[in-house]
Every structure is written in structure tokens, then in C-alpha cells.
TrEMBL record:
Species per Swiss-Prot/TrEMBL record: Genlisea aurea
GO cellular component: membrane
Keywords: Membrane, Transmembrane, Transmembrane helix
Topology in the lipid bilayer: Multi-pass membrane protein
Subcellular location: Membrane
InterPro entries: EmrE-like (IPR037185), Sugar_P_trans_dom (IPR004853), TPT_transporter (IPR050186)
Record keyword Aminoacyl-tRNA synthetase present: no
Keyword Lyase: no
Chief location of this protein within or outside the cell: membrane
Bilayer-crossing regions: 16-35, 47-72, 84-102
Protein name according to UniProt: Sugar phosphate transporter domain-containing protein
Residue ranges constituting the Sugar phosphate transporter domain according to the UniProt record: 20-169
């Protein structure tokens, strides 16, 4: 804090930049969701190959990372052994790809709003998988919160006009892999 309790200009600038990054991230996330829905929905563009859309996403992310690290040198490269890469990076990349593929596949069968609602089950999945693999201690209070989230999603799902069981299975699979 500066004189008289005022916040310094540099702190305000950092906060403004952080909020700008968040706003850009939210907008781009929204744009990708709407784009995926348009491309994959049978009543719109109707592209029937969600795996190819996932491959395009992964190619774009890889190309952008290569550009930022190797060409523009805006990000310092990280040195890692092949062993560490195979044990850490590769499994995460594969799981992320599976999550993207299943989520993109769900756009064929479900509405965007319903998919976003199912994504609210992410904390339930993370906690449950953590308990299952003994990385998280089971707490009845936490489980009560998880059950309340699940009940809320179930109540919201009850009124869904385009409830397709296969789409729900795909999206829940995406949540599990994520």
C-alpha cells in the first residue's frame, strides 16, 4: 500500500491485466464451444467425425506451443528426459485427447447448455476418483456436498428437452477422463 492506503498503480495494472486475460479466456472458450456445436450438430453443419475435430484442436494447440516456445521465444523451453515425458506428459495428453473427443462427440446429441450443466459434475468426479485411488481422504461432509451437486444436476437434467442417453454417457466419460 502506498500513502494513505491507496493501491499502487502497478498493482492496479496487474489486476487489470489479469482480468483482461480472464475475459479473453472466457470469450475464446465460449467461441470454441459454439463453434464445436455448429460444426457437429446434425441440424446445423452436421460434421459426423468428432475425432477429426479433436485432432484439429490438438494440432492447433501443439502448433501454438511450438510457435511460442521455439519460434517467437516468448516462453522458455523446458528440458526434460524422455522417461519423464513418457511417464508424465504423454499420459496427460492422451487423457486430455480422450476427454476432448468424448466431449466433442456429445455435441452431436446434446445441447450446449446441457453439456455445460453436466460439466458441473467435475468436482464430484475429481473427489470420487481421488478417494478411489486413495489420493484424497473420504470425508462425509465433502461427500454430502458432492451428493448435493449431483442432485442439483439431476434436477436440472430432468427438464432437458434434448436428453439423449448416449450423449450423456459420452459427456460423463469426458468428465471422467478430464
Amino acid at each position: 500500500m502506498g500513502k494513505g492506503g491507496a493501491v499502487s498503480e502497478s498493482v492496479v495494472r496487474k489486476i487489470a491485466i489479469s482480468y483482461a486475460y480472464v475475459a479473453v479466456w472466457i470469450f475464446l472458450s465460449f467461441a470454441v464451444i459454439v463453434y464445436n456445436k455448429y460444426i457437429l450438430d446434425r441440424k446445423m453443419y452436421g460434421w459426423p467425425y468428432p475425432i477429426s475435430l479433436t485432432m484439429i484442436h490438438m494440432l492447433f494447440c501443439s502448433s501454438l506451443a511450438y510457435l511460442l516456445v521455439r519460434v517467437l521465444k516468448l516462453v522458455d523451453p523446458v528440458s526434460m528426459s524422455w522417461d519423464l515425458y513418457l511417464k508424465s506428459v504423454l499420459p496427460i495428453g492422451l487423457l486430455y485427447s480422450l476427454s476432448l473427443w468424448l466431449s466433442n462427440s456429445a455435441y452431436i446429441y446434446l445441447s450446449v447448455s446441457f453439456i455445460q450443466m453436466l460439466k458441473a459434475l467435475m468436482p464430484v468426479a475429481v473427489y470420487s476418483i481421488g478417494v478411489l485411488f486413495k489420493k484424497e481422504a473420504f470425508k462425509s461432509e465433502t461427500m454430502a456436498n458432492m451428493v448435493s451437486i449431483s442432485i442439483g444436476v439431476g434436477i436440472a437434467a430432468y427438464g432437458e428437452a434434448r436428453l439423449d442417453p448416449w450423449g450423456v454417457i459420452l459427456q460423463l466419460g469426458a468428465v471422467a477422463f478430464e
